[in-house]
Design brief:
With 306 residues, this protein is low in regular secondary structure. It folds into three domains: 120 residues, no CATH class; 68 residues, Pectate Lyase C-like (3 Solenoid); 95 residues, E3 ubiquitin-protein ligase SopA (Pectate Lyase C-like, 3 Solenoid). The chain is elongated.
Length: 306
């Protein structure tokens, strides 16, 4: 199983992570559709005068990706009619993303009047994948294809990145404050020292160890310095090496959180719960302790033992 989404022209195949790698089913379908559309540019996928297979047979005759199988087994039915004009009807389409994928599937089956060609993939994804050199890393906006782009230090504050492909992108030190990441794929992206807050939408996939809490991208190495995380539920969060200097963590629940090597310099830990948290190597200089529940379960207003 692939660890990231991609269309590989040399093998004419679509690679997708496991379904579990996506936060939502719609996110899975959306990313799959994007990769499928990439595959439609393959030279052998030229229009054909052959009739298009009907219903599930159109899918069954091609190699199916995990997400595509997921759509079929979940009850998605596609009935293609009038292939000359590329029109289709459907029953029980599960979502707008699934509908978009169905349209892309028609394209992948040979265009508006074509049939599946030998060796074609009825997988998923939108755009034209002509290799890394063809990626325009200056593009911003919905559905932007920024796979593997160097966005180190980029100012993406308020950017509309809905359904963007940010797989393996270098977003170190980037500013994603108020950015709309609804449906965006950030699988494998480097979010070290990323600045956030007020994040809009739910991404389709995030890098391992990351989550969105109170509008912040929370994870290993994240820059949450001076941010307001009062009352945040950070139970079990991976905050290894994260920057939390000066952060307001009043009443935050950090039960079982991994704060190894994190900076909590002058952070406000009033009423915070750190039961079971790992503070190994954390910088706690100047932190405010008041009615704080320490890793050992003791409630005190003095520094917790590390």
């Amino acid at each position: 199983m692939a660890d990231r989404a991609a269309y590989v022209p040399s093998n004419d195949e679509i690679l997708l992570p496991c379904r579990e790698a996506f936060i939502t089913a719609d996110g899975c379908y959306s990313v799959a559709c994007q990769e499928l559309a990439h595959s439609t540019g393959a030279p052998h996928r030229r229009p054909s005068k052959h009739a298009l297979p009907m219903g599930r047979d159109a899918i069954a005759q091609t190699h199916r990706s995990p997400c595509e199988r997921d759509m079929v087994t979940s009850g998605l039915q596609l009935d293609f009619v009038q292939p000359t004009f590329g029109r289709m009807s459907s029953s029980r389409l599960v979502s707008s993303q699934a509908l978009a994928c169905a349209v892309s599937l028609v394209m992948a089956c040979g265009g508006s009047d074509g049939a599946p060609q030998p060796g074609t993939d009825a997988g998923t994804d939108a755009g034209t994948d002509a290799g890394t050199d063809a990626v325009d890393c200056t593009v911003r906006g919905p559905n932007a294809y920024l796979r593997g782009c160097d966005l180190n230090g980029a100012d993406l504050a308020g950017a509309d990145l809905r359904n963007a492909n940010l797989t393996d992108a270098d977003l170190r030190n980037a500013n994603l404050t108020l950015a709309d990441l609804g449906g965006a794929n950030l699988t494998g992206a480097n979010l070290d020292r990323v600045v956030s807050g007020g994040i809009v939408g739910v991404p389709a996939a995030l890098p391992s160890g990351y989550q969105i809490t109170n509008g912040y991208l929370v994870g290993p190495g994240a820059d949450l310095s001076d941010e307001n995380l009062a009352g945040a539920d950070l139970t079990g969060a991976d905050l290894t090496g994260a920057g939390l200097a000066g952060a307001n963590l009043t009443g935050a629940d950090l039960t079982d959180a991994d704060l190894t090597d994190a900076s909590l310099f002058e952070a406000d830990l009033t009423d915070a719960v750190l039961a079971g948290a790992d503070l190994t190597g954390a910088d706690l200089g100047g932190a405010v302790w008041s009615n704080t529940t320490c890793p050992n379960g003791a409630v005190q207003s003095t520094p917790c033992p590390q």
